[in-house]
Amino acid sequence: MNMTLQTFGVxxxxxxxxxxxxxxxAHGDASHPAKPRKFDAxxxxxxxxGREGNPAKAVRTIRVDMADTMRFTPAEIQVxxxxxxxxxxxxxxxxxxxxxxGTPEELKKHAEFMxxxxxxxxxxxxxxHVKPGQSGEIVWxxxxxxxxxxxxxxxxxxxxxxxxxxxxx
Length: 169
Description:
Blueprint: H1 2-21, E1 51-52, E2 60-67, E3 71-73, E4 76-79, E5 84-91, E6 97-102, H2 104-116, E7 127-130, E8 135-141, E9 146-151, E10 163-168
Parallel strand pairs: 2-5, 4-10
Antiparallel strand pairs: 1-8, 2-3, 5-8, 6-7, 6-9, 9-10
């Protein structure tokens, strides 16, 4: 019995360390949603697919609908390099969805991690977790040319094809 408790404690500690090391943090639940993000220029970090954008500098708004058919509409968007856009993710379905920006490799890795921690919600500038009938937003500056993705990483959604493409020219 003592060995079992010790093993459980080590496993719990390892799980907590894994969560802390991912850059994604758990927060809130259906009854305690996350507070809206406030832009802080001093906290902006560059990523391979851009950086958090200043909402005051967003040049346009792109609405992306999310559906229980595990699809985004539109599934492809185009932006100019350096452009700051407001992405409004509207959940038209009956289940929870999210929109996460990233490289294909990062999204695939994060989707696998989400299988281990399916209740995880996010509070990162490139992510929004959206309840049915609600909308969330991401303000993002696309600083690098290339092809990136947005996806719903809730377990089963990504695997069902809930992925979109961002082309930055």
